[in-house]
Amino acid sequence: MNKANLLNILAQVQSGALTPADASDRLATFPYEDIGFAKIDHHRFLRTGLPEVIYAQGKSAEQTAEIFARMAATGVDVLATRASESAFAAVQLATPSAIFHSQARAITLRQSSTVESKGHIAILTAGTSDLPAAEEAAVTAELFNTHVTRLYDVGVAGLHRLLSVRDQLATADVVIVCAGMEGALPSVVGGLVGVPVIAVPTSVGYGASFDGATALLGMLNSCSPNVTVVNIDNGFGAAYTATMIARASHP
Length: 251
What we know:
It is built from eleven helices and eleven strands. By secondary structure, the chain is of the alpha/beta class. The strands form three sheets. The protein has a five-stranded parallel β-sheet. The longest helix is centred in the last third of the chain and has 15 residues. The model has no long low-confidence stretch (mean pLDDT 89).
């Protein structure tokens, strides 16, 4: 359920095209729909401007497909993160228009009409190995109608690569930086831009990187005051927050 759907139902009641009883049936899932193994928060879009998102990891393919279909039935854009190919196969049976983004491990369904993008997010990676987190962020932001610029493989081991994209960085309302190893890139980027930088530590690196813990601690100790940090490999969380910041910049 989004604001346009709700206003349409109310307008139909006002005009007499829909009875109050029928409207009540359509709104029966407010504030959530209980399907036994999940309580789907259809009301979230009206509260936050963004719909609930399905975290598919740990759910069965059938559970993911059922939640996805129930959300799709309300007319919102739907996103499932950390999804497997088997989960997508189940989703596609019930929702044929769904799309699988293999690198991002995400399933999307766009149902909203095309609207002008609100805000601009630049997404950087230190290396190609950081692409899964970066693409999770990019797919999320794009589904939420935010303009995304991808600037990949610009890590500090070759600083000239980052400096060559400064013009593109300068136009962003918020920057997401995905990096593993020692996690140095967000601090460097923070010193080059005058906007918030959201750092995503990735589980990339040799033994002492400790599956991203080293990058996480390095980013938390950044000397650039405009750098904030999300959890390891959490491209989705970075994009969700970045989208809200970008929208606030373009009310």
